[in-house]
Amino acid sequence: MSLPHAILTALLEKPSSGLELTRRFDRSIGYFWSATHQQIYRELGKLEAEGLIRVLPSEQPARGQKKAYEVLPAGRAELARWTAASHDPRPLRDAMLLRLRAAAVVGTDGIEPDLRRHLELHERQLAEYREIERRDFPPGRDSTEDRLRHLVLRAGIDLETFWTEWLRHALAEFTELPGQPGSAGPG
Amino acid sequence: MSLPHAILTALLEKPSSGLELTRRFDRSIGYFWSATHQQIYRELGKLEAEGLIRVLPSEQPARGQKKAYEVLPAGRAELARWTAASHDPRPLRDAMLLRLRAAAVVGTDGIEPDLRRHLELHERQLAEYREIERRDFPPGRDSTEDRLRHLVLRAGIDLETFWTEWLRHALAEFTELPGQPGSAGPG
DNA sequence: GATTCCATGTAAACTGTTACATGATTCC
DNA sequence: GGAATCATGTAACAGTTTACATGGAATC
After folding, report:
1. Can you spell out the DSSP letters for chain A?
2. From its phi and psi, is residue B51 left (phi > 0), alpha (psi between -120 and 50) or beta?
3. What pLDDT, on the 0 to 100 scale, is given for residue A28?
4. How confident is the model at residue A57 (pLDDT cuts 50, 70, 90)?
5. Which of A27, A42, A18, A40 is nearest to B92 (CA)?
6. How distant, in Å, are the alpha carbons of A20, A75, A168, B53, B78 from that of B50?
7. Residue B36 neighbours by CB distance under 10 Å
8. What does the pLDDT read at residue A182?
9. Across the interface, do A84 and B109 touch by the CB < 8 Å criterion?
10. Shortest Cα distance, chain B CAs vs residue A83, angstroms
11. What is the rounded distance in angstroms from the CA atom of residue A46 to the CA atom of residue A9?
């Protein structure tokens, strides 16, 4: 499981409080490993109990006060171990693909608006990634860290590019469809 | 929540027993919505209790005997409703991308073999999809159901193509790397 | 002092995974 | 009749999601 390692990575990049982490999981790290604030607080508690992170000594607050964490050597070692370990890729799970497969059986009625909406969402995400690329990875720079992070961003860009193209392709199929199959109802 | 709808789709395509469904979730439907036999049996029980499916009247067996299900009209209606309803796309969660982001901080030591292994796995999956395309979608055929199912298969092919290209790109970066960053250890 | 926002959390419900249990059938 | 396989499940746990709770700080 990867949430603790996502948090360790984020904290190594920059020590943060729970809410700051939550914000960064809404962009940046969250682009390929999302998490809610509830997950993050729970996991911070576990990681601290395991001695992988600690509260920054400068701030030792009460409930409701900001509390920032940093990674301890044991945490960095655990992250390095996990990064190098072998992990099987998780099988794909995509509801839109499932819905189209279902539509082949029960009919395509009503699905087109959501295809358009998804297309817009993916176009927006793609534009955001491109903007990050323009801003953070200007041509010429190539420290190793930059190259690795750029590689990850390229994956996001290429994936969103795939989805926008595929959704456009799907919508094109729809406008060509003669009648709606399967919409004759049960029986 | 999509597992019940994946099962309804599979049962509409062909009434099946739990084990037959499990087999089909290891290929076909499972290529974009995977499930284990435990999930499937639990969900079959729920769907039957809700009146969306029923045991085929021809076979009413005891424990350990094969038991095939079919979809009832209410089940078909629920699937059509779900297919047409609006759903937000789930955010991406990919451990390999996270690992590369972590590698930018803790170093790339040891990650290359698993990149190669993933490349092989994705190449194998891509070959399998292409074989299915060759077998099931010869040029010329285009009933609406076929076109929808082909569209879904194309998504699988394009996604695996993306991953193989991206992993090759990642490995190329690695062979060019001068020194291993971050591997100087904690501090 | 009421409302809103910041920040940290708890609880419960739901999903998914791993390990195990049980009966029926087939094959030697 | 013993072992392997088919087929259907149960139980326990881990991970995720949703709803709610609590306290402090800022603002009106």
Report:
1. --HHHHHHHHHHHS-EEHHHHHHHTTSGGGGTB---HHHHHHHHHHHHHTTSEEE-TT----TTS--EEEE-HHHHHHHHHHHHS--PPPPPB-HHHHHHHHHHHH--TTTHHHHHHHHHHHHHHHHHHHHHHHHH--TT---HHHHHHHHHHHHHHHHHHHHHHHHHHHHHHHHH-SS-TTTT---
2. left
3. 92
4. confident
5. A27
6. 43, 47, 37, 8, 11
7. 12
8. 44
9. yes
10. 5
11. 16
| Segment A15-35 mean pLDDT | 94
> Where residue B59 falls among pLDDT bands split at 50, 70, 90?
low
Out of B108, B158, B169, name the one closest to residue A166 (CB): B158
Nearest-CA distance A147 → chain B (Å): 8
Residues 156 through 175 of chain A touching chain B, CB cutoff 8 Å: 156, 158-159, 162, 165-166, 169-170, 173
Please tell me whether any atom of strand D lies within 7 Å of the Cβ of A95. Answer: no
SS3 call for B35 = coil
> What pLDDT, on the 0 to 100 scale, is given for residue B168?
97
Q: Residue for token digits 């995400």?
A: A125
**Bases of chain C with protein Cβ within 7 A:** 6-11, 14-19, 22-25
Q: Over range B161-171, report the average pLDDT.
A: 97
Within chain B, residue ranges assigned H as helices are 3-13, 18-24, 37-49, 73-84, 95-106, 112-136, 144-176
pLDDT above 90: residue A43: yes
Q: How much of chain A, in percent, has pLDDT values that exceed 90?
A: 80
Helix (H, G, I), strand (E, B) or coil at B160: helix
Give, in Å, how far the C1' of D17 lies from the CA of B164: 33
Reported as a pLDDT band with limits 50, 70 and 90, residue B66 is confident
When pLDDT is cut at 50, 70 and 90, the band that residue A63 belongs to is very low
At what angle are helices B3-13 and A95-106 packed, to 10 degrees?
A: 30
Task: Name the percent of chain B lying above pLDDT 90.
Answer: 80
Closest-CA distance, A75 to chain B, in angstroms, reads: 9
Torsion of CA A135, A137, A141, A144, to 10 degrees: 140
Neighbours of A161 (CB within 10 A): 16
